[in-house]
Amino acid sequence: MAEREIILEVKDLQTSFFTDDGVIPSVDHVDFHVKEGEILGIVGESGCGKSVTSLSIMGLVPSPPGKITSGQILFKGKDLTKFSEKEMRKVRGNDVAMIFQEPMTSLNPLFTIGNQLVEAITLHKKDWNKKQVKARAVEMLRLVGLPRAEELMKDYPHQLSGGMRQRVMIAMALVCDPKVLIADEPTTALDVTIQAQILKLMRELNERLKTAVIMITHDLGVVAETCERVVVMYAGKVVEEGTVDAIFRNPQHPYTKGLIASVPDMRHKKQRLYSIPGNVPKPGTIKNGCRFAARCESVFGRCTEENPPLYETSANHKTRCFLYDQKEVEVHDKTAATS
Amino acid sequence: MLRYIGKRLLQLIPVLLGMTFVVFMIIRAIPGNPAQVILGQLATKEAIEALEIKLGLDQPWYTQYFDYLIGLFQGDLGESMRTVQPVANEIWPYLAATFELALFAVIIAVIIGVNAGIISAWFQNSWFDYLAMVIALIGVSMPIFWLGLMEQWLFGIELQWLPTSGREEVRNPVAAITNLYVLDTILQGRFDQLGQVLKHLVLPGIALATIPMAIIARMTRSSMLEVMRSDFIRTARAKGQKMFWVVYKHALKNAIIPVLTVIGLQMGLLLGGAILTETIFSWPGIGRYIYDAIQYRDYPVIQSGILVVAFMFVMINLFVDILYGLVDPRIKYD
User: Fold this and answer.
1) Which residue in A has a C-alpha nearest to residue B238's C-alpha?
2) What residues does the ABC transmembrane type-1 domain cover (chain B) (predicted)?
3) pTM summary value
């Protein structure tokens, strides 16, 4: 397969919130990229900066108090952080679209499905006539697997179930053929069976339309099922990055190991499910050292003093942990050998 | 929908009946005798008694009340004791005058109040927000009679821009058709008079609009602030919609229901409670009509005047309830 081009690249992104308690960097020097047609997962606990990262890409960080304080977001090589609000409006929905966690409340309850879909189209396809717009809206509703699409256009969101509404949200996001779709916890609020349907739909649409997807989730199951590559975030930082295969077979960062260990496995009966001790630190409270140090089982002196960089442990795998620093590896190997 | 309206109208009957009873009893509890007031202090006892018999005041209260009710059900609002005219004929010009003024005031209050509330919520904690809310606070706490007097002094006497009393030029009276003068002058094509009528509306209109405007602004702001945090607002922005349309299309429609309630209540209050403004600006409205009737103990006028105002009040509220259903498809009437 030919090497796909990078469509969206986040470089050294820092998004901070200016609160009464000081400046809190919610996303702290984050780097990752998405290739054309790829599904990238971003995993992490609540409050680790996943959603703020996605809102930063959309230019929708609530401001004040939030602000992108450094870094670049390159879409097709152009830096979105330098775009004016007017330029960003042309990107939103058109080049980069987004769907949200809460399908129940993400559609405006007082406008019909048709009205909201048509709005999404006419904002970007100004030269289309009414007929074309309507045809496109109906086509999209069919594409996301909704029955009786024509009548659905006249329905209000409250007449639809949660799963149907999320399908409508997906249809609305993809209606202008965006290059990147950001899905912020798209299945979290849904029943398990509906979750599976929606994930399947998203995978199919990704294959058919070649839209790159950034799948933001806290659910490793979702990642394993849908994504090609994963970025693991912890307390505003990327701690591990790699292909799904690499991450699940060979998790390197102690946090990732902990996450995978805490997924219940139906095949084995365990006495007690593993859980990572402690809590996620409040953003901005840890100034020095690795942010995971306080909860890490493999912590050693250096962890609380220095900030670990991302170590490239193999071609498709990066880890932000001193255990993978070449020097440390040697030291640890020696101690292992002597004992 | 029609069934709902029918049901609501039926519910009106006990409400209005109860109200007529309360009003009937209260006005008779106030000291004073209509016959005495009409005939003056020097009237003889015999003359007063004769007039009482003529007015039916010698009957026991329940007989008087049922006579009045029977009249009401036949569409008869009674006859003024003072002018000996049917109240139904007399009341309309006053009611129209008040209705016109109240509507004018509510339109000002809604246009300014709703927009001020929206912009305050949109730019929360901005200088506009603070300024608008301070003005709204002053507006709510302002005594209307004082504001009215200040308006008359500044715009009427000092600057001489606007008339300070009445609803038309005395030397150029409007020929009444509906008694809603703005409508009448337009119907007759008398645009010179329309200008005059509008000018007469301005000062009392502003005085009357101040409090509703402030209440509407504060209500709109808080309602908008809540809606602006909704997920669908973020969705609308994520589509690439302009902030202006996000606010005025997506947010406003969701925020408007509590505001509609307030507008309805305020309109109802203005219809009945404009006595102060009507007095200051010599506006020949229903408030003054009833007030004068109270001075003369003109029982039928008081009873029917209050009944008509109460009827308007409930009708406006019914209208607002129907509007809810038009705004929000989730509200069903059955």
Assistant:
1) A92
2) 95-324
3) 0.84
